[in-house]
Design goal:
Elements (H helix, E strand, L loop, with lengths): L1 H148 L3 H49 L10 E5 L4 H7 L4 H10 L2 E3 L6 E5 L3 H17 L4 H30 L6 H9 L4 E2 L2 E2 H19 L3 H10 L14 H11 L4 H8 L10 H15 L8 H16 L4 E7 L4 E6 L6 H18 L7 E6 L9
Parallel strand pairs: 7-8
Antiparallel strand pairs: 1-3, 2-3, 4-5, 6-7
Helix pairs in contact: 2-8, 2-14, 4-6, 5-6, 6-7, 8-9, 8-12, 9-11, 9-12, 10-11, 11-12
């Protein structure tokens, strides 16, 4: 039984032993893991402590380095400030020494000046006494002379000066009159014949230009199309051409306003093309304006060529031909400059032919004398200077250039041809109706003429005649002699020339009339 029990209990005991053995083994492994973990933790703690110590030492080292750098920088700044202060102190010491030396120098100069001032003061007193003695002596001598002559010193001096002046002027007037009479006797008949013949043969029609042009329209409905929706068409036209377009109550017409005749012509041609085409909108306006610009350039060139053909001039530079064409769209005092230039050329050539001088030079210089007026406003200089520059640039002869340069008497006349060009220019500009001026300017010029004449001593009355081409002066016969009248005429003419701007010439006539009136009672 016991044996059976023992045999049966062996497996149970085995199982129990195995269970306990498993538990024991498991506990042993757990303890080993714990031990290993503790060892590893200790290692980690040791490494962390070492790493912390390293970081701490490194931080202390960096802090010491930064502190040393700041200390070095502070010491450097301190040394620089000390150096600057030392330099400033040195400069101040130098300035102080210089000021001290200057002060001492000024003191010495002041002492020297005081000594000199005392000497000068003493000399001045001596000079005053001497001057007083001299003045007293002179006064005695002058008084004696005045007593002997019966005139004061000032009266005698003025009388002598007046006498010398009058004698010199009268002699000059007599000499000039004699020369003028001789020249007039010889040249008046010939000049009259030449000028009259030239004027008659070159008679030209003058049209006064204005600052506006009128474009005729087929109907008033076209005005609305030119204006366009909200004015876009008219704005495009004005912007493209640079002309003010005025649409008012004028029936079947619009007005173009601009001081530039070329722009007015461009606008006129563009509007006529647009009206004929019928399509009026901003894009079409730009196209038409560009086309018209090309046509206008060709028209200008053609106008210049026609002018040369009309006058029989050859071998002129194409650029000068183009400038000639532009003169058709330029005016001077309302006179068309191209028409004026052609007339001057014809007059100069006719007079040159009569006198037997170079006709070709006179013709070319007369035609080109105002070519500078065709140049745009961007170029500086008077029209004479620009004319000279252009003719030199484009190969005109020196004789032509010099004749142009002297046509306003900016230089002395270099030749007979130059004189003829100037005379022809004056004749063309002075024709009645050739040029116009504002009424206000015209009245002011006449008043100024009469004022200039009335400002002379001995003038009783002055009248401006023939639209200001002549001033007639009546002098007091009791105050002005015949010779003195001639002198007054010359002086008045010179003053008019100096103070007034006018085309052509002004004739000055002085009339001296002696009247004796008695009454029989």
């Amino acid at each position: 039984m016991m044996k059976t029990i023992l045999v049966a209990g062996v497996p149970v005991l085995s199982v129990i032993l195995i269970f306990f053995l498993f538990i024991f083994l498991k506990r042993s492994r757990g303890l080993k893991g714990i031990l290993r973990a503790e060892e590893k933790a200790k290692e980690i703690l040791t490494q962390a402590a070492e790493e912390a110590e390293k970081i701490k030492k490194q931080a202390e080292l960096e802090a010491k380095e930064k502190d040393a750098a700041r200390q070095a920088e502070f010491e450097a700044q301190t040394r620089e400030k000390r150096r600057k202060l030392t330099e400033l102190e040195r400069r101040l010491i130098h300035k102080e020494e210089a000021l001290e030396r200057r002060y001492q120098s000024l003191e010495r100069k002041e002492k020297d000046l005081s000594v000199k001032e005392r000497r000068v003061f003493s000399k001045e007193k001596e000079l005053e006494l001497l001057e007083q003695k001299i003045n007293e002596t002179l006064q005695k001598q002058v008084a004696e002379l005045e007593r002997i002559a019966g005139l004061t010193q000032e009266e005698a001096k003025n009388a002598l000066i007046r006498k010398i002046e009058d004698e010199a002027k009268l002699q000059a007037v007599q000499t000039v009159r004699k020369i003028e009479e001789e020249a007039k006797e010889k040249g008046k008949a010939l000049a009259r014949e030449i000028i009259a013949n030239a004027i008659q043969r070159s008679a030209a029609e003058h049209v006064v230009e204005t600052t506006v042009s009128v474009v005729d329209l087929p109907s008033d409905d076209m005005k609305g199309r030119i204006i366009g929706r909200e004015g876009r068409n008219i704005r495009a036209l004005e912007m493209a051409t640079g002309v003010d377009i005025i649409v008012d109550d004028t029936p079947e017409a619009v007005i173009l306003s601009s001081f530039d005749p070329l722009r007015r012509e461009l606008a006129r041609m563009a509007i006529e093309k647009l009206v004929a085409d019928g399509r009026i909108h901003p894009a079409r306006i730009e196209d038409i304006v560009e086309q018209v610009k090309v046509e206008l350039e060709e028209k200008i060139k053609q106008e210049g060529e026609n002018t040369l053909l009309e006058l029989g001039i050859q071998n002129m530079h194409p650029e000068l031909v183009k400038y000639l064409g532009k003169l058709k769209y330029r005016t001077s005092y309302g006179q068309n400059v191209l028409q004026h230039s052609k007339e001057v050329a014809l007059l100069a050539a006719l007079m040159a032919r009569e006198l037997g001088v170079d006709v070709n030079v006179s013709l070319r210089a007369g035609l080109l004398h105002d070519i500078g007026k065709a140049v745009d406003k961007d170029y500086e200089g008077t029209h004479t200077e620009l004319s000279v520059e252009l003719t030199k640039k484009y190969g005109e002869s020196e004789a032509v250039v010099q004749a142009i340069a002297s046509h306003h008497r900016d230089i002395d006349f270099p030749s007979v041809e130059a004189v003829l060009v100037q005379a022809a220019d004056t004749l063309s500009a002075a024709r009645p109706g050739a040029r116009r001026e504002l009424l206000e300017t015209y009245i002011q010029r006449l008043e100024k003429l009469e004022q200039i004449a009335a400002s002379f001593e001995g003038v009783a009355k002055a009248f401006a005649l023939q639209a200001g081409r002549e001033i007639r002066i009546i002098v007091d016969a009791t105050k002005v002699s015949d010779d003195r009248a001639a002198l007054i005429a010359r002086d008045i003419a010179q003053k008019i020339k100096d103070e007034l701007d006018y085309p052509g010439q002004i004739k000055v006539t002085v009339i001296r009339e002696m009247r004796a009136v008695e009454y029989a009672r």
